[in-house]
Amino acid sequence: MNEVPNAAPLTIRTLAENDIDAFRAMRVQAAEDTPFAIVSTPEEEARWTREENLARVRETDRQCVFGAFDGERLVGIVGWRREPRVKFAHKSLIWGVFVDPAYRRTGLARRLMESAIERARAFGLEQVQLSVSARNPRAQALYRALGFEIYGTEPRAMRIANDYFDEDLMVLSLTAPLSTIKN
To answer: How high is the pLDDT of residue 70?
Structure first.
């Protein structure tokens, strides 16, 4: 692991209203830095209004965005959303995982992911899902190390110019190994 740029410990907490500008800037940075990993383009991210971004990060029993902070500086994010419909209420989704390049390989993405997984456990959910670019082996390795398994691949899930990117669909069972679950 790399050393963290600041000697002070990094903190992880849910984002609040006063973090909206930093969240917006980080989402634009993420879309520029890893366009194959973020659905929105930088221009689309920049168009989200303050109110729309507040709705995206507002902490409720159904959603939140965890932020990693180096002092007051936002250096990583992960979104968590729980399904509202009764038939899907046993699962949640992780979205928008991004860590500032200066903080990669420090264990920060793992800590952010663990925060989102713990939120799912706290609500008694049975599984957590995410999708990841098939061209992002470092993210896939992290997710596998956390217990996620690939259950399918969406071919040509994203197109950037004339290049297509497959998405691997991954799931983490919080109740029993997937190999023991029968339909």
So the answer is: 96
Distance CA 25, CA 77 (A): 11
Find where tokens 């194959």 sit.
36
Amino acid at 105: R
CB burial class (10 A; 0-12, 13-18, 19+) of residue 58?
middle
**Strands 127-133 and 91-99, sheet pairing:** parallel
- Gap between the Cα atoms of 26 and 37, Å rounded: 14
Tell me the CATH number for domain 11-176: 3.40.630.30
Enter the tokens of residue 52: 């729309």
Strands 127-133 and 73-82: unpaired
Domain chopping of the chain, boundaries: 11-176
Residues of the chain with pLDDT under 50: none
**Distance from C-alpha of 17 to C-alpha of 151, rounded to nearest angstrom:** 36
Rounded CA gap, 96 and 108, in Å? 14
Predicted pLDDT of residue 176: 73
